[in-house]
Amino acid sequence: MTARRAVVRWAWRLFRREWRQQLLVLALLTLAVAATIFGVSATYNLVPSADARFGTATHRLELDRADRRGLDAQVAAVRAWFGTVDVIGRRAVPVPGSVEPLELRTQDPQGAYGRPMLALRAGRWPSAAGEVAVTDAVAATLQTQVGGTVALDRRARTVVGVVENPGDLEDEFALVARAHADPPTAVTVLVRATAERAAALPADAGGRLEARPACHGAVLCATATQSERATAAAGALALATVVLLLVALIAAAGFVVVAQRRLRQLGMLAAVGATSRHLRLVLLANGATVGAVAAVAGTATGLVAWLAVGGRLEPLAGHRIDRLQLPWWLIGATMVLAVVTATAAAWWPARTVARIPVTVALSARPPRPKPAHRSALAAGLLLVIGVASLAAGIDSVHDRANPLLVIAGTMAIVLAIPLGSPLAIRAAAAAAGRSPVGIRLALRDLARHRARSGAALAAISLGLAIPIAIVIAATAAEHTAGEGNLSDRQLLFRIGDAEPLVPEPPPAELERLGSEVDWFAATLDQPAVIALQVAVNPADREGRNGQILRPAVVLGRQVSEHTVRDVGVLYLATPELLGSLGLDPATIDPRADVLTGQTGELRFANLSGPGTPPTVQPIQLPAYTSAPTSLVTSNGLRRHGWQPRPAGWLVAARTPLTGAQVARARQVAADAGMTVEARDHQAQLTAIRTGATATGLLLALGSWP
Amino acid sequence: MTAMLELRRVSKVYGSGPSRVQALCEVDLTVDGGELVAVMGPSGSGKSTLLTIAGSLEELSAGEVLVDGSALAGMTRNQRARLRRRLIGYVFQDFNLLAGLTAVENVALPLELDGLGQHAARAAGVAALDELGLADQADRFPDELSGGERQRIAIARAVVGDRRLLLADEPTGALDSVNGEAVMRLLRAACKRGVAGVVVTHDAQLASWADRVVFLRDGRAVDQTARPPGPESLLAPRPGR
Amino acid sequence: MSVRHALLALLSEGPKYGLQLRQEFESRTGEVWPLNVGQVYTTLQRLERDGLVESDDPEGDGPQKGFRITPTGGRELAEWLRTPPDTVAPPRDELVIKVLVALPVPGVDVHEVIQVHRRHLVELMQHYTHVKAEASDRDVGLALVVDAELFRLEAVVRWLDAADARLTSLPAASPVATSAAPARRHRLEVRP
């Protein structure tokens, strides 16, 4: 209709003239859109892809027959069933000084389905005998580089290249040419087939079949990776929608201010014969324009930010990121969402303004502000809910945080602030009675033009809330980091390499080992070295490779009639160890045999003879699985007739250990004939991922400039 | 011939209880096409209220208002808006024009709101401006024009498209006497063409441009001037030449 | 009204005859103030006696007598043009007196008195405005004279409005004259 076109034309002209008056709302919306685009792109790319384990295959078959001939026959049978297959061979070889074995992998870089799992970073692929390519962490552990030599599996090999699994940067292995490799101990076969075909695999060719996730088994999914990522990114968008809603609230306040500024002109328009619908259209068109401008500017900003930062997120993600691989349709949806949100935000102010009588509009008097009681009540309620949610969400005792509660609590507090603002402003204006004229004028004006103040306060509160929320989430993330085998500042040196069997070195040897550990520890930042002892039954002993080994007493949990699950080696509760764990020896019950945080039906295990129930005193210890979690008291030792034996040393530094320090520890342990255990990478990453999720959400809230 | 504007025993009350204000009390007014009526009175006498009620911008408390024979009371909001688009032209003291539109777009606004196409509306607007001698200001924005030009453009908007009721509230209030006189001449010229005009003013000089002056006091019409006799009676008889 | 000086002004344009002077005066003032021939000649004689004009033939006395302005006359004219009129005591305005005396008279609504006069004045103004409206654009003289009258009438209307407002704000039953006397009434100075 021509009338609508005329109205929209005027609205657009007004926007062009007065856009600076709406800078606040524009900036906020742009920021929200930019953060959403960044968050969506990041989520899309941070999601680990199944490519790391499946390549382009739909199924993985793990074959692990003990003998080589059986394995070959199995592979042949699988190949016969499926046609094209890609075979990956694995063989675990020990690494001197390290607890973890190294995987020697044979895989064809040009394989049918496995290509996305291999990438060459430096040098070349191994082709001849005695050639090996390693991943970067392996190179660091073995302290080698391209051109160097390493001894693996009792053979010297030349390092010809550095490789990686682009889909999983934490996948550490050494690649050798299949033709010159030793027979593998396990084989993985990658196939592409429908679920029915895979399920119908004959038994003699069978192994453990694993289907690619997000394929739902039914259809041969071609774009499985895409759909996994898209789902995650869509989830991020859904989260961002919630944030956009928050921004819409503030935008609505901003549009109320715009409507009031234009009240006189709108009255004039009505006097000339515009209907309420035309008047509403003016403000809705303004909202849509703001949304469109914010959508374009925000998308551009978000994309630029992503392109700039995206590459650096690879260590966080644990896989390679292609910055240009973006969910374009989701980005388009975000832009549309921004326009829709802004228009929707303008709807209620538009409706209110259109209902004002023409004569009132023409006189441009500010409307009488609503009483502050109701909104103050709502603000108080939200504040209470918010604080309660936060308190429930962060459980500092168990070092856990429930992200949902934390987020809900933060949002409740953020919402409470603009609702409480009218009361705060009234109070401020009342208190301003004695202040200088300038301040008094400003405060009284704010109090009268409630809408203007509401918008300003809401924007300020949102801006303040963001750093607060980031701090809260970071704390929450920190609290979820108490997992893993050891903390990032601990190293566990063990005498021998066959836990829970402990060798009995002669005292001179023991002293040498001890001094090696002390010498190494001296290179760390404020180190603490604690000697660890285990309990052994003097009657039990085993011989292996000419060595006498003693089985250490282990704490177990009875999980069924005949099964006792191992929950941890019992370390002797020496005053040293107790002190380092923050326990007071005086608080120990003399009747207690075992100090542990474990619960359930506990038994002694790894003993000859029946497993007897210990007398347990419960204590709180950090949950690192390899550090001492269960202690045996000296009284308990005496009661059961056990003897203490040295088992190793626990070294703790004040600051997190660097990769170089860990590598040096491995070297020291290897040279001395010990093993050393450090924090497992996987655990580290889980903690980081939790933090990343929370941070990603907060990025969507908009970063504080 | 039915009068263009008829107010019958119109009353308007604002507020209630202790803050009750009687703005108008049983006012009768009839304005025919071609007649220019001035409404004079001190501030608070209800003259502006009279105009807003006549212009369908405000509801009355009692009485009847008929514009071109149809009563305003039975009309919906949209019908009244249509009246303002097609029949009634309003001129305010100041801030008549919309800032984002050019002069001719302002003049053509009621036509466009009524659904007339952009080109036809512009043609009508230019024609209206031309009559007032402002054709070369057509594409300027209001903030580039002087106060007098703005008021004249407001009048052009109030008469564009064969409007027949023109309501002006202190149209010369913000102008000097020269511009004020120009505006009044324009109003008179419009009324000569058949438009019924009502001008609210406190300025006697400007009211004297009208055919009839109605005096308002405390919401009541207390007096009105008679039709003026011809100008000849004023001048002293000339000695024969 | 200073006919003397008006004639001087006309003569400053150049020598003129008596009749010519009268004609020009009337046409320049929109024919609102007709002049008597006798009045013109009397004034010219006085001007000649004062040395402000001179005639061709001091003794003669006919319609063909021409007159000229003298340098003295020129200076007199210049000074008159530049000198604003003296401030004089407010004239004994009949209207003002009416309002003042009407106040304490019982049974008389002063506001009504004021309204009657207001209406009359506005009607007068309407007449003058219509004259101005009908007149040609080039008749500047007429416009000036009419404007002068309009402004004068408007001033009176405005005084009536002010009086109306002042009287409205008075409490009902105390006329001006018997209000508590102010400390001292200042006499309005009258300068000659």
SSE diagram, text form:
The complex is a heterotrimer of chains A (705), B (241) and C (192).
Chain A: H1 2-18, H2 23-46, H3 51-54, E1 59-63, H4 68-82, E2 86-93, E3 102-106, E4 119-123, E5 131-134, H5 136-142, E6 149-152, E7 155-164, E8 174-176, E9 186-191, H6 195-199, E10 208-211, H7 224-261, H8 263-271, H9 276-309, H10 314-317, H11 328-354, H12 358-363, H13 372-393, E11 394-395, E12 400-401, H14 403-431, H15 437-448, H16 450-479, E13 490-495, E14 501-503, H17 507-521, E15 528-536, E16 542-544, E17 547-551, E18 554-558, E19 564-572, H18 575-580, E20 594-596, E21 602-605, E22 616-618, E23 630-632, H19 634-640, E24 643-652, H20 659-672, E25 674-677, H21 681-701
Parallel strand pairs in A: 3-8, 5-7, 19-23, 20-22
Antiparallel strand pairs in A: 1-9, 1-10, 2-3, 2-9, 4-7, 5-8, 6-7, 11-12, 13-24, 13-25, 14-17, 15-24, 16-17, 18-19, 18-21, 20-23
Chain B: E1 5-14, E2 21-31, E3 36-40, H1 47-54, E4 62-67, E5 70-71, H2 77-86, E6 88-91, H3 103-113, H4 118-131, H5 147-159, E7 165-169, H6 177-192, E8 196-201, H7 204-207, E9 212-217, E10 220-224
Parallel strand pairs in B: 3-8, 3-9, 6-7, 7-8
Antiparallel strand pairs in B: 1-2, 1-4, 4-5, 9-10
Chain C: H1 3-12, E1 16-17, H2 18-28, H3 37-49, E2 53-55, E3 66-69, H4 71-82, H5 94-102, H6 110-134, H7 140-168
Antiparallel strand pairs in C: 1-3, 2-3
Helix pairs in contact in C: 1-4, 2-3, 6-7
Folded structure, characterized:
The complex is a heterotrimer of chains A (705), B (241) and C (192). Chain A is of the alpha+beta class. Chain A is built from 21 helices and 25 strands. Chain A folds into three domains: 2-49 and 226-482 and 692-701, no CATH class; 52-210, no CATH class; 490-679, no CATH class. In chain A, a hairpin with an 8-residue loop joins strand 2 (86-93) and strand 3 (102-106). With 241 residues, chain B is of the alpha/beta class. Chain B has one domain (32-59, 77-213, 221-227): P-loop containing nucleotide triphosphate hydrolases (Rossmann fold, 3-Layer(aba) Sandwich), CATH 3.40.50. Helices cover 32% and strands 25% of the residues of chain B. Chain B has helices at 47-54, 77-86, 103-113, 118-131, 147-159, 177-192, 204-207; strands spanning 5-14, 21-31, 36-40, 62-67, 70-71, 88-91, 165-169, 196-201, 212-217, 220-224. In chain C, 57% of the residues lie in helices and 5% in strands. The two termini of chain C are 17 Å apart. Chain C is mainly α.
